[in-house]
Amino acid sequence: MRIAVYPGSFDPITNGHLDIIERASKIFDKVIVGVLRNKNKKPLFSAEERVDLIKRVTNHLNNVETASFDGLLVEFAKQHNANVIIKGLRTVNDFEYEFQMALLNKTLNDECETMFMMTNSMYSYISSSMVKELAGYKGNLSGIVPDEIIQNIKDKCKQ
Ligand code: PNS
Question: Where would you tag: which of 34, 110, 146, 150 has the fewest CB atoms within 10 A of its CB?
Fold first, then answer.
């Protein structure tokens, strides 16, 4: 069985992320979306909320599961018997950091391959931080994040 993990902060999930998940779900038998719990920056949504939002918008994909994780990505992948890490690349700016991470993860676990998917050009300008900034200015989020979660983002930005 080919199992892949798709890791990230997903604070919140965007249409760019969802596009990668949908495409990866056609290639792999199972895709585990891994939500990183602790990062230095304080997230807008708690890990539980981020997992919940992802589960809602991936409900139509029966080979996709979502779980949060702490610690090393390669350990999370191992726990789920995944030997592929999927990363999305939007622009050339993403490349250097992702290249470094891929090499480091390969050193940590030689069995685990990082595979890159090019973002859909429609979504190449979208990032979770842009979504948060836009939501803070009460900008229109439709087409940028899945419709089902727009209200959750608006509500969170009001708090
Ligand atoms: O969406 P992001 O914030 O760009 O995702 C980054 C993520 C979660 C993929 C990355 O920070 C990560 O893999 N963190 C887990 C810790 C780890 O394994 N780091 C690499 C070796 S130090």
Answer: 110
